[in-house]
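To illustrate the input format used throughout this study, we show a single complete record. The first block contains the structure-token representation of the backbone; no residue identities are included at this stage. The design step must infer an amino acid for every position from geometry alone.
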């Protein structure tokens, strides 16, 4: 009987422990207010999470030039599309919008477009656009200046006597117009724009500056003795860029002046009358004919080896590297040249 009472007591105690243990397993249920649940559900429906697809966005952009273009009077209080698609009338308007470019330069201007910001801003190279003239069949009207909207033009020098013109010379192409000056003479920005390149080219331009303009063109100023602007600096037509000189590959003090559209140089005398120090028109039409010289420049050129010539002398004659000649002809720098041998230069 004593043992029976002990077993009964132990059974009661064990059952109480199990009950308490099982009760701790189940979570406590709290009833929510129905109104609060409806509000949370509505807020959740309004939430839309989307990632930014940069490549898809860039594919949707189209640009006539590399500038931001607006049409007629602009209400800057309204959100406008980045690029106008009207190719007949190109007008720029400022907006004081801040953008950040790859060199961590802050630019207070909307005309550094989203496309330029992501794809075509480089402060190291002159031609960064990969513009294929073989596929260019359009006619683009570039409005060079427009006083109504506050942007003007200026000759790059106070006086602009031409010493060498655009074209083929000394067995190579000269992609600008040389303007005579005295070392130290001021060199001015031709149009409103922003400094994209400030650099030094020992075997070519010397100290030079490239300015991207709001009208879609770029200008290059070579052989400077001193540069007075920085990359990312916004300039107005007539602002001082530097001082003229004879640095780099130069036989005397002068300004090497280039006009470029999407990286490709064309004859500045299509836009300027340098003898009269004036611009020819408020607008300039860019057509495939504007770049017809490039087809000639890119033709294959061959040289017949003469007695006493070597790879170095031939390379210097045509203004190319020895490596270019060896690559085009499948030879090495140690190859022996034969008199009468034809070498491809370009």
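Output of the design step:
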């Amino acid at each position: 009987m004593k043992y029976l009472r002990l077993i009964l007591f132990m059974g009661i105690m064990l059952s109480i422990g199990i009950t308490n243990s099982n009760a701790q397993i189940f979570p406590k249920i709290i009833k929510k207010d129905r109104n609060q649940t409806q509000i949370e559900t509505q807020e959740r429906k309004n939430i839309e999470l989307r990632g930014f697809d940069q490549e898809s966005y860039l594919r949707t952009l189209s640009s006539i030039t590399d500038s931001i273009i607006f049409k007629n009077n602009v209400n800057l209080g309204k959100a406008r599309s980045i690029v106008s698609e009207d190719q007949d009338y190109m007008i720029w308007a400022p907006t004081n919008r801040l953008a950040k470019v790859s060199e961590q330069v802050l630019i207070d201007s909307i005309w550094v477009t989203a496309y330029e910001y992501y794809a075509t801003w480089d402060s190291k190279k002159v031609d960064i656009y990969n513009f294929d003239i073989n596929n260019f069949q359009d006619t683009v009207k570039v409005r060079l200046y427009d006083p109504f909207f506050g942007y003007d033009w200026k000759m790059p020098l106070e006086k602009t006597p031409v010493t060498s013109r655009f074209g083929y010379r000394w067995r190579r192409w000269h992609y600008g117009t040389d303007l005579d000056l005295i070392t130290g003479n001021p060199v001015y920005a031709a149009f409103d724009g922003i400094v994209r390149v400030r650099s030094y080219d020992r075997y070519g331009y010397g100290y030079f500056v490239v300015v991207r303009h709001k009208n879609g063109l770029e200008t290059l100023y070579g052989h400077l003795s001193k540069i007075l602007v920085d990359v990312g600096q916004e300039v107005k037509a007539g602002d001082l860029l530097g001082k003229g000189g004879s640095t780099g590959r130069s036989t005397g003090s002068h300004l090497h002046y280039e006009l470029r559209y999407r990286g490709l140089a064309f004859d500045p005398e299509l836009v300027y009358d340098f003898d009269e120090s004036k611009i020819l028109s408020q607008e300039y039409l860019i057509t495939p004919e504007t770049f017809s010289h490039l087809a000639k420049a890119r033709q294959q050129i061959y040289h017949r080896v003469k007695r006493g010539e070597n790879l170095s002398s031939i390379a210097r004659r045509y203004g190319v590297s020895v490596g270019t000649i060896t690559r085009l002809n499948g030879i090495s720098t140690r190859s022996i040249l034969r008199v009468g041998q034809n070498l491809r230069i370009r």
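Structural context for interpreting the output: The two ends are 118 Å apart (CA to CA). The chain is about 20% helix and 25% strand.
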